[in-house]
Amino acid sequence: MTSNSTAKTLVKTFLRTPHSLKTKFQAKQLLAQFLQTQPYSPSSTSILISVYSNFNLLHPSLFLFNSLNSPPLLAWKSIIKCYANSGHFLNSLTCFVQMRSFGIYPDPNMFPFVLKACVFLKNLRLGESIHGCVIRLGLDFDLFTGNALLNMYAKFQSLQPNGGHKVFAFNVFDGMPKCDELCGTSAQEKGASIIQLDRMTKVLEMMPKRDVVSWNTVIAGNAQNGMYEEALRMVREMGNANMKPDSFTLSSVLPIFAEYVDVIKGKEIHGYAIRHWFDSDCYIASSLIDMYANCARIEDSCSVFNLLSKRDDISWNSIIAACVQNGVFDEGLKLFRQMLTAEVKPRDVTFSSIMPACAYLTTLHLGKQLHGYIIRGGFNDNMFIASSLVDMYAKCGNIKAARWIFNQMEHHDMVSWTAIIMGYALHGHAHDALLLFKQMEMDGVKPNYVSFIAVFTACSHAGLTEEAWRYFNSMSRNHGIKPGLEHYAAMADLLGRAGKLEEAYEFIGSMHTASTGSIWSTLLSACRVHKNLELAEKVANEIYKVDPENVGAYVLMSNMYAAARRWKDAAKMRIFMKKKGIRKEPACSWIEVKNRVHTFISGDKSHPLYDRIFEALKDLLEQIEREGYIPDTNEDFHDVDEEQKKYIIFSHSERLALAFGIISTPAGTTIRIAKNIRVCVDCHTAIKLISKVVQREIIVRDNSRFHHFKDGKCSCRDYW
């Protein structure tokens, strides 16, 4: 047998069984042999086009297609498919229209690609026209065409939650019992659900045959559009049809329980996943991590992650986000480092997730490192990452860097505007914050719930009571935003700081929603600052009613009794706290020096450099006393003599951190300190004078705001 006849035989064999070709290289070789050995034939050319379309080889497919005078159906179907799979959606639809103009009837396998093109071109009207064509041609019985229609309507639907009953019955995954046993719903409820069926569900009901893909498409479409009850109903229907859920079903349903914060039902899904060997699937694992994190079960999130044998970028991003969202910031940073060590490349969502950890821990050095990585990775144009950087720099005390990044952004959305407004608010630059808010409105960005919290925070830190009332009233009147707990808390805080304690008390009492312990606590703190013990006792009683486990209320009342020299009442309060197991959170400050965070607790002598710190404090005390400093012992509530009180104040955590910063950094270096509670009056006075004698800028972030100390003055103007 000659080599030419062997080649002819081989080509004929491949044309009869085109699916035996496994690589693009083999497909290209077939074309070369075909052109050399085969006479022109529309049918064989069409087969070759279909081979190329399976490998998405667009240019060879077009070369062969254009050689046909009257392309048969297979050629049209193949080129339409190749265009769609190569991202040329308009060309795909154009070919379909041309084919119909020649009077050629499409077969069912063509419509999934045409409908895919409609989805990517976001042309619902055209998609509906194609749906009509499917029905007129009697091809709506086809499973793949039906699935493509379901996918199209799922992508296009923009539905609101239907407010249905929360009915959960996920034992369907294992037992497949009858519908009524499963759902526990009445015929009337089921009938009401059927009335509310959307187009996607109607397509599903009209399909004579459905597979797992059909059900998954409808379930995912409803879940992604907030139609949680409808999605759960479809899962139950899927079970009734004796169709077993797969990993895609589970990953679609788990976010629903994350939204509902229903860890019990989430665990049922987890159990089903383990029993059916889905738990090693990265998508399932990531959904489980998110679900547990949303239910504040971070330990379970970590367990799921640790049991994964293979971890992709999605699972890494999920566990990092889970840790940060649940306040486990150090663990989130640790996992981020492990992710880099594992050579998993961070994505934009990685940086958006990890940046709040730097912001909370005020680790400016690490934040700068991440910023450098973002620039090198080409992520700096991403709006979400830029907004995270604005927030991080602002919360790490560098509002100038935050503003610079904000100004470099090409476009500003609500998140970036709110980040910079809140940044200025926390730094005490109230007028700049309000100016930015007005500029945001002028740029056509509508304020939302969070942006008004930023505005009230700015007004609170500057005592702008009238402006705050104006914004509070306009929020609902002009913007249709109903005041929430955070807005009420911010307003109560503002009135309390301004000394309008009775007005704040009446304001909280007149709230449209039930008051909480945290809102009353803002007023209780104001009562302590303004030394109004009588009102404080009334406020404390309100806290005990709604939040009897509120530790801060007992501590504040104990301190206020001590400040009023009511030692018996103070002792009673402390005895009560001891019996209840209520412990006061120790005052703690931390400072970052040479890429390492050093933590100090009031009166703590454990630091290796304590002797040098103590000597530096003594030296600083002598210098500021020459500037007129007199210790204010009214802020110390211990029943001891004056000298001992002076020593206690002398060793407050922020002073220890400050002295350490001074002896550990070059002269002129800005010192940044974070504290977990409010800076006391005496320390505030002392740090103002220290900033003057050492000629340094000192930035202190307490639990409510930033204090910028420089040349003997503070940015808060002694209003905090």
UniProtKB/TrEMBL annotation:
Keyword Repeat recorded: yes
Lineage: Eukaryota, Viridiplantae, Streptophyta, Embryophyta, Tracheophyta
Domain of life (superkingdom): Eukaryota
Molecular function terms, GO-annotated: RNA binding; zinc ion binding
PPR repeats: 72-106, 211-245, 312-346, 413-447, 448-483
Keywords tagged on the record: Repeat
Span of domain DYW: 628-720
Protein name, per record: DYW domain-containing protein
Keyword Hydrolase in annotation: no
Pfam families: DYW_deaminase (PF14432), E_motif (PF20431), Eplus_motif (PF20430), PPR (PF01535), PPR_2 (PF13041)
